[in-house]
Amino acid sequence: LAELVGRVDADLTARQVKLLASLGLPTAVSGLDIEALMTAMQRDKKAEQGALRFVLPSRLGSVELVGNIDTGLVRRAWQS
Length: 80
Description:
Elements: H1 10-22, H2 34-42, E1 53-59, E2 62-67, H3 71-79
Antiparallel strand pairs: 1-2
């Protein structure tokens, strides 16, 4: 998602995916009900009055709380 909204570049995403894979952690999921996920995320403690907010990397080793992200991009991130 951070890459889709332009907060990090593809190189950082690839580096993070490679790190997770090297630790035996999953880097992809399938068979998700995207709409159920979107509904659940609106109830998350980070959501503000139903608006989604995410903790996203801004560079290696740094994250920020980000709101006002297009829900279409969130759906795309779940599908990728």
